Amino acid sequence: MQFTAGDRSREPLRLFCGEVLRRWPHLAASDVLDSRGEPSKLIAMLQKTYEYSAARAEKELHLLIKEFGEKLYRAA
Questions:
Q1: What is the pTM of this model?
Q2: Spatial CB neighbours of 57, under 8 Å, sequence gap ≥ 6
Q3: ∠57-69-76 over CA atoms, to 5°?
Q4: How much is the average pLDDT of 43-63?
Q5: What angle separates helix 11-23 from helix 54-75, to the nearest 10 degrees?
Q6: Does any domain span residue 1?
Q7: How far apart are CA 74 and CA 76, in angstroms?
Q8: Positive or negative: CA dihedral 32, 16, 39, 6
Q9: Quick one: which of 55, 58, 30, 26 has its CA closest to 42?
């Protein structure tokens, strides 16, 4: 899931960043927001902050993205 400046609403990005910070509270909020939801940037943060392997960081992030998408679907 990637959010760009061209999105009509920044609300999903804000909500997604909140989910990321709830799951991984040691990440810097400003870094998460600056990532704009780009998986490669978030994976790099997880590797650096939590010392996850690339495979683990990718797997855990994709799980969070899936869960977030399901929450948005249920809320719509």
A1: 0.82
A2: 42, 43, 44, 46, 47, 50
A3: 160
A4: 98
A5: 130
A6: no
A7: 6
A8: negative
A9: 58
Cβ atoms of residues 68 and 13 within 8 Å: no
What does the DSSP 8-state code read for residue 1?
-
Q: What is the DSSP letter of 32?
A: H
Flag the least confident range among 2-11, 29-38, 51-60.
2-11
Q: Look up the domain containing 15 and give its range.
A: 11-75
Around Cβ 14, how many Cβ atoms within 10 Å?
Answer: 11
Provide the number of structural domains found in the chain: 1
Which amino acid type is present at position 35?
A: S
Q: State residue 5 phi and psi, 5-degree precision.
A: -65, -20
CA distance 14 to 20: 10
CA dihedral 39, 45, 50, 56 (to 10 degrees): 30
Residue 3, helix vs strand vs coil: coil
> Is residue 6 in a domain?
no
